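User: My collaborator and I are trying to settle a disagreement about how two of our proteins should look. Neither of us wants to argue from intuition anymore, so we agreed to look at predicted structures for both before our next call. Could you fold the first one, then the second, and keep them clearly separated?

Assistant: That sounds like a sensible way to settle it. I'll keep them separate. The first protein:
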Amino acid sequence: MIASDFHNPGMTVALAMALGMIAQSLAHHLRVPGIVLLLAAGVATGPDGLGLIQPASLGPALNILTGFAVAVILFEGGINLKFRRLKRARRSIRQLILLGGLVTVAGAAIAVHLIMEWPWQNSILFGTLVMVTGPTVINPLLKRLKVKRSVATVLEAEGVLIDAVGAVVATVALEAALSPFNVSPLVWAWHVVSRLGFGTISGGLIGMLLMLLHRDRRLIPEGIENVFILAAILALFQGSNMILAESGIAAVTMAGIIIGNFSSYALRDLVEFKEELTVLLIGMLFVLLAADVRLARVIGLGWPAVGVVLVLMVLVRPAAVLVGTSFSELGWKERFFIAWIGPRGIVAAAVASFFAAAFTEKGLPGGYELRALVFLVIAVTVVFAGLTGGLVAGVLGLRRPSQMGWVLLGANALARGLAKLFKDDGQEVVCIDSNADHCKAAENDCTRVIYGNGLQARYLLRAEIDIRRGALALTANDEVNYLFIQKVKEETKRVPLWVALKSDSASLTTKMLHTSGAELIFGAPVDVDAWDRRFKAKQVHMQKWQRISDPHREADKVPLTAGYPGNGLIAAAVRRNDSLSPVGDNMRLKKEDEVCFFVFEPEVDAAAEFLRQAGWRCMEHVDKNDFTTSICRLDSEEG
């Protein structure tokens, strides 16, 4: 292959995609921010390096490709913004975007004007470019750091929403700078407001339309739902831009928010599709845009450019957060951490490249230097946040505690009954199920419900499996339950495991569970389907019993229900150290242990007699799934 072959646009895009995926895979294993390796890959393989990737060969198509990719990325970011989380931090988010953004623009402009002696026009343009953070950097960082939800919500929302606002502000600022007419600032301010308003309204309407279309399965043929929505989003982006320039970013962001908050659980496949597509596009874009920046221009900026970046990090970002979070619900630790974390992402890079092209087209100087400085800001802030974020979060006590709550695979009626026990005990319960009806029914019993395949890593990450007290497999399929615990072990080695098993078989035995480090939940095999039907028919009672005899007999080392003649009694949970935990077949009884039993209604009296004779005292009886306390009949009759 000769060198000229690499000037082929198709080869450039293909190599950028491949290198983007390789760099992100390597970053995952090295536990470093992916963008660091993406930028390095772009520079190393671009015209200043091996010359394999030639962004110039794409011509005007580079801007089109960048725009479409940014649209998909921000659509994904919008889907992940949930109103219930935004509502709790709405003051901080609103002020960070409006007041904090204004402080950032002004501070960055003053810094670059004084330190690098740029003209005010270019200085202000630089300020509008660096006012954005970005979900492409923030979200992976927050997943790795595991900070508290209050902080994560603010940073995630700021990253998505300020990208939409910042892109419009930057574009209007560029139009003002290039305009030959002396126009009032109020006119340009109206341009910002009108474009954001139009994008928000059009995106909201299209988002609701897509939501309704997706709910009626007769309208969109099965198998093309994902690409249908993707095509609609790209059409929305380009159509909105055609009517009002750069309003498309706000439109796709709002469409994502609407779909993410009001759609049905059946959008799981769309979520999977756009996540994978976003990873591909982020990698491709950063490689292409980094390759398009001349390394000599970055080096030519000299130490003054480093000084500008330091001022942005040490003075401007803290000032913006201080103003943006004043009189908010955040404490000083949360505010300090938000000020510490301010990496720039793909939108800043994309708009900076657009600025450079616009300057060149108009024959104006400074466009390439402007882009080079923005890329320096991106590189330094990403590396800084990635290397120091975890340490700062730990010192401030903002990392989420480990050993917190439970993850349940399955949201069938039996799983919901167990989840309710834990939830009523004040513990967090995350239920994962691929059955939409089960998920809807579990919304009141589980703290969180995730519609998806629990055998896939992305859903375990959403359930925050790495910080949980344990994971419970409660589906009616023994093989799926076993695969689930294997998948959990791949993601984290420290989470205890419990598995429901109908009965030992040639393919799966209790011994295999123990070899895998799991326990048999309920202490004995259970027919999940049968108990699911009983719960749905409201034929299950919950009883709390306390062990009153000293468990020294051999019988106390076998399952709690061993010797019971029926199949309508299971030991669900045990209270120790003021907290409920699942009952497993390796559990050993202690005197005064409290155990919650599920009892099939026709066997209530028989089960009570069995437990009393085995050395138990009934403490509480709840009738027919209602979880309304009453007195155990047999004990009260004796009293």
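The second protein, kept apart from the first:
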Amino acid sequence: PTGVPMAFDHRRVLATAIGRLRGKIKYRPVVFELMPPHFTLLQLQRTVEALSGAQLHKQNFRRLVAQQGLVEETEGVTSGTAGRPARLVRFRREVLLERPAPGLRLTPSRRAQ
């Protein structure tokens, strides 16, 4: 690791916050509170990986997100990137009313893509 060491107890505070997010992600869709209103599935996957500390298989992640109905496609696409523009999606807030525990149920993969 490079950079400036954290002052005071900031390292402990950060570790506690990440631990709480990792616990909550299983039963509450807290990851969407960290996302912009419109985002790509890859951005969502990278955020979930950072929170969970595990790498996820791309196709399995997309299948799980689709099966759980947590997001819906928008008309927008990314711009200013190399390659084909990615479709933008948004979190379906209705999910909070539809089920009691709308968290992400993810299984880490052995091989990340």
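Some points you might bring to the call about the second protein. The mean pLDDT is 86. Helices lie at 10-24, 41-52, 58-68, 95-98.
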